[in-house]
Amino acid sequence: MRRYKDLKVWEKAHAFTLAIYKNSPGFPAAEAYGLTRQIRRAASSIAINIAEGCGLGTDAELRQKLQIAMGSASEVDYQLLLTHDLGFLTPAAYRRRTDEVVEIQKMLSSFIVKLRTDLKSAKSPTR
After folding, report:
1. Whether 17 contacts 43, CB under 8 Å
2. Which of 37, 39, 59, 92 meets the CB 3.0–4.6 Å disulfide criterion with 79?
3. Is the Cβ–Cβ distance between 116 and 63 less than 8 Å?
């Protein structure tokens, strides 16, 4: 078991979620139960899945939750494009949030690869 609060990727995901919450009040009121709710849910899902994975018993289970977090990050990436194209985000805010989610995706990918490599090493017989 790992402490999720000690992970840089979780810190970035949490800060990203806070930024999404701060940006989304500028979305139209008609989107309160649509895009606003979806992008907030997907953004928070990244940090939630990292935290949940850390609370599980094995690195394989953690890796699975990190892959789910990666899916949520991809979902947010598209939702950012959509909000930008609809004019709900300024170009500067869009670039900042996109850069942040790409960084989170890279960190998740590296963590997943590391866990996969560690699992393979643990399974390979010693000589």
Report:
1. yes
2. 39
3. yes
